[in-house]
């Protein structure tokens, strides 16, 4: 079975994946923009959304790795023309991951205050963080369910339906945010930061419901749980565990970044919240092409088509860097107006504009790192990803952050350390990939 790796086919997978991927940071960015423009404790609320957003992102990234594991296994079986052998795997994977999400709620809900104190939150910011989290956490099982379904669609080489689900979810969140945060005179009272949390939970529920509908209607996959476990469940769990450790390392990076920014004061954490959410937005835009790499590399590996695998990597690097440069240019053109979308506080805007150029400069480098991240996930090489992220976090990011912080560089310290972290994550993957698959492509 030949696999099409033309630009047209890559875009057919990448553009819907890009749109669906962008919905994730849009949920956070919407909360950031709407909460940041409230007329009641806006800066403190913005800081709380940033702190809780960092923690929830950690939970989603740790447990949301089911998407990559399911996608990798399913796409390899599609490439080998053996899909029937893994039809019951998604339901089993979803059962495991949603059970874990409920456990997370039970463990974290009673200790929300202690958790956000670890992020240096205090006083009003701590109160708002606890209020916001104790509502938003109930959307967690819906989010993980949707992520697992998206992984199944990716394995089936389909990114169209996840895009539809994500568009509806993001649109719902924006509309609900405006209604619930600001209220409607005489109809719905303004709920401020609590309204933003409720809007997110309802949007996540809508996405989970649509995920069930499209998976059952548009694919041969069932959601009926059956036993015994599929023979690939062990490989799935090993992938998840490797990605789990990897994502913990990733979140050590986010924890230190958020904690340091909070420690610098409310204007700094508010500015960091805006900058890091825009960085996530850029990451998820590039992730469209990383998703295409994930989907196609798994299929090519299953088909043992190593020559096309090398060609695919070359094309994706080129497209990703073009996209990264384009985003950096767009950000540069609108440099002085982007911050105003999120806040009118001149002190926060000043701190944001001081470091936003670093976020923009990182985009082409991020493209290479994220695309090869996606390809290695598609190839099922989670152990390599785990080891590299542990090294880049603990031997690059953390030492650089503490050193630059000691020079009193504040937000500069955080974003410069993030840049070196991305470089350390990306380029070793390129070298390892070519070393392994270039000889195989010449032998086939």
TrEMBL record:
The chain crosses the membrane at residues 45-64, 93-111, 131-153, 160-184, 196-216, 236-257, 269-296, 316-335, 355-376, 388-405, 411-431. GO terms for cellular component: plasma membrane. The lineage of its organism: Bacteria, Pseudomonadati, Bacteroidota, Flavobacteriia, Flavobacteriales. Belongs to the multi antimicrobial extrusion (MATE) (TC 2.A.66.1) family. It comes from Formosa maritima. The keyword Repeat does not apply. Keywords: Antiport, Cell membrane, Ion transport, Membrane, Transmembrane, Transmembrane helix, Transport. NCBIfam families: matE. This is Multidrug-efflux transporter. GO terms for biological process: monoatomic ion transport. InterPro entries: DinF-like, MATE_fam, MATE_MdtK, MdtK-like. GO terms for molecular function: antiporter activity; xenobiotic transmembrane transporter activity. It is found in: Cell membrane.
């Amino acid at each position: 079975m030949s696999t099409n790796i033309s630009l047209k086919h890559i875009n057919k997978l990448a553009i819907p994946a890009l749109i669906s991927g962008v919905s994730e940071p849009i949920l956070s960015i919407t909360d950031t923009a709407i909460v940041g423009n409230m007329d009641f404790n806006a800066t403190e609320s913005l800081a709380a959304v940033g702190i809780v957003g960092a923690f929830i992102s950690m939970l989603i990234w740790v447990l949301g790795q089911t998407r990559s594991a399911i996608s990798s296994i399913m796409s390899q079986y599609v490439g080998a023309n053996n899909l029937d052998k893994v039809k019951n795997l998604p339901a089993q994977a979803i059962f495991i991951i949603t059970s874990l999400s409920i456990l997370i709620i039970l463990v974290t809900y009673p200790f929300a205050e202690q958790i956000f104190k670890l992020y240096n939150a205090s006083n009003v910011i701590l109160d708002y963080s606890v209020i916001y989290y104790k509502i938003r956490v109930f959307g967690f099982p819906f989010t993980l369910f949707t992520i697992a379904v998206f992984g199944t669609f990716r394995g089936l080489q389909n990114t169209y339906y996840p895009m539809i689900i994500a568009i509806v979810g993001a649109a719902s969140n924006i509309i609900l945010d405006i209604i619930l945060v600001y209220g409607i005179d005489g109809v719905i009272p303004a709920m401020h930061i609590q309204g933003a949390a409720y809007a997110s939970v309802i949007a996540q529920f809508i996405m989970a419901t649509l995920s069930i509908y499209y998976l059952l209607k548009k694919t041969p996959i069932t959601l009926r749980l059956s036993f015994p476990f599929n023979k690939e469940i062990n490989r799935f769990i090993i992938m998840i565990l490797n990605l789990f450790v990897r994502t913990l390392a990733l979140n050590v990076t986010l924890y230190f970044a958020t904690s340091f920014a909070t420690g610098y004061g409310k204007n700094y954490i508010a500015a960091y919240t805006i900058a890091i959410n825009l960085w996530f937005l850029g990451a998820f835009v590039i992730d469209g092409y990383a998703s295409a790499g994930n989907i196609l590399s798994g299929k090519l590996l299953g088909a043992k088509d190593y020559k096309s695998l090398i060609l695919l990597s070359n094309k994706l690097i080129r497209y990703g860097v073009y996209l990264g440069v384009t985003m950096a240019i767009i950000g540069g053109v609108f440099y002085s107006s982007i911050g105003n979308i999120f806040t009118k506080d001149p002190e926060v805007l000043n701190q944001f504009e001081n470091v936003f150029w670093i976020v923009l400069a990182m985009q082409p480098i991020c493209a290479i790192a994220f695309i090869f991240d996606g390809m290695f996930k598609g190839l099922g090489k989670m152990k390599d990803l785990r080891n590299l992220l542990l090294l880049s976090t603990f031997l690059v990011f953390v030492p650089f952050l503490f050193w630059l912080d000691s020079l009193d560089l504040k937000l500069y310290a955080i974003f410069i350390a993030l840049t070196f972290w991305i470089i350390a994550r990306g380029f070793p993957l390129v070298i390892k990939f070519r070393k392994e698959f270039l000889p195989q492509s010449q032998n086939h």
